[in-house]
């Protein structure tokens, strides 16, 4: 009754309604729930730490929200406006904490994946599948950039390197890239069309390379050779040698190469067929593959 009389004498004087109080409670509960899920301030690191963090945050919010709310609303007796101000402020603080949590998870997840790969808790294909699911555009760009560096370090005048597609199953993840090599004296002043097919598997990585000249018959022959090589490779995916994958050719040879982001040297089997048609096979073991993947991600 006194409140009604006071409100008639002073129209700016109001009392909070139950809905306004529920707004404050919802904001306080939201902040508490967000802190419960926090990896550092949450109860998993200790109940005392959680209680101190919770009280500290509510104390800071009391200063940030309640002081201006009192100055603008409470001094005039507008306690409903004071309560609504504080309730909305708590909800905004909850939203900001949630956004901060998502940002933290988004930035920490790649490093967590790398750590799991290094510690053997993730296989190579499982690591790449998880990374691609997290940020597919970043994954594709990093893959193309890494192989572009590798081709340039082999002194190839490569252009138009593009990712044709990625396929995967429980045992491997496959990436197919295409590129173009400009005419030069080394390749008989004809342009070459290139393919690079990477298979990442638990035992490491295997790379099939293929080039054919601009002649239509040359690339038609290459398609069959490449398909047969892929079929053979899948049957011997975890092998350590370079045998039994590329179709036989009297001119096959084994050469030494140095791949980017991999410290140890590798060997590549090179098999020319018709003029302008060539296949290559390179294998990298699990240790060197993991080291290369980690180096790419830490920007070494």
Tally of helical runs: 8
Form type: elongated
Radius of gyration: 32 Å
Q: What is the percent of helical residues? A: 40-55%
Annotation, overall tally of beta strands: 7
Let me know the average pLDDT: 83
Q: What order do the SSEs take from the amino end to the carboxyl end, as H and E? A: HHHHHHEEEEHEEEH
Uncertain runs are: 1-8
Overall structural domain count: 2
Strand order, main sheet: write it out. Answer: 1-2-3-4-7-6-5
Could you explain how this protein is built, in words?
The protein has a 7-stranded antiparallel sheet with strand order 1-2-3-4-7-6-5, with helices on both faces. Helix 4 (79-118) packs antiparallel against helix 5. The chain has helices at 2-9, 18-36, 47-72, 79-118, 124-134, 136-153, 216-235, 286-298; strands at residues 158-168, 173-181, 192-201, 204-213, 253-257, 266-272, 277-285. It has 2 domains: 2-118, no CATH class; 124-298, no CATH class. By secondary structure, the chain is α+β, with helices and mostly antiparallel strands. It has 8 helices and 7 strands.
Give short descriptive properties of this protein.
7 strands; 2 domains; elongated; alpha+beta; 300 residues; seven-stranded antiparallel sheet
């Amino acid at each position: 009754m006194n409140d009604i009389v006071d409100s008639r004498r002073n129209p700016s004087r109001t009392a909070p309604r139950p809905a306004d109080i529920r707004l404050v409670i919802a904001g306080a509960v939201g902040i508490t729930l967000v802190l419960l899920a926090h990896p550092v301030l949450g109860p998993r690191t200790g109940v005392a730490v959680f209680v101190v963090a919770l009280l500290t945050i509510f104390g800071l919010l009391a200063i940030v929200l309640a002081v201006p709310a009192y100055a603008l609303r409470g001094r005039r007796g507008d306690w409903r406006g004071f309560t609504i101000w504080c309730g909305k402020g708590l909800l905004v603080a909850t939203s900001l904490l949630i956004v901060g949590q998502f940002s933290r998870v988004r930035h920490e997840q790649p490093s967590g994946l790398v750590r799991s790969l290094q510690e053997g808790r993730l296989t190579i294909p499982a690591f790449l599948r998880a990374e691609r699911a997290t940020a597919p555009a970043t994954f594709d760009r990093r893959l193309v950039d890494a192989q572009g560096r590798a081709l340039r370090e082999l002194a190839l005048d490569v252009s138009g390197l593009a990712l044709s597609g990625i396929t995967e199953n429980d045992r491997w993840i496959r990436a197919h890239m295409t590129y173009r090599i400009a005419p030069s004296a080394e390749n008989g002043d004809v342009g070459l069309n290139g393919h690079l097919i990477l298979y990442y598997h638990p035992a490491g990585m295997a790379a099939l390379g293929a080039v054919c000249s601009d002649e239509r018959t040359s690339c038609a022959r290459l398609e069959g050779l490449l398909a047969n090589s892929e079929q053979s490779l899948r049957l011997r995916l975890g092998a350590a040698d370079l045998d039994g994958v590329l179709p036989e050719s009297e001119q096959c040879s084994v050469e030494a190469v140095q791949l980017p982001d991999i410290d140890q040297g590798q060997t590549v089997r090179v098999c020319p067929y018709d003029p302008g048609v060539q296949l290559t096979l390179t294998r990298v073991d699990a240790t060197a593959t993991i080291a290369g993947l980690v180096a790419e991600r830490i920007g070494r």
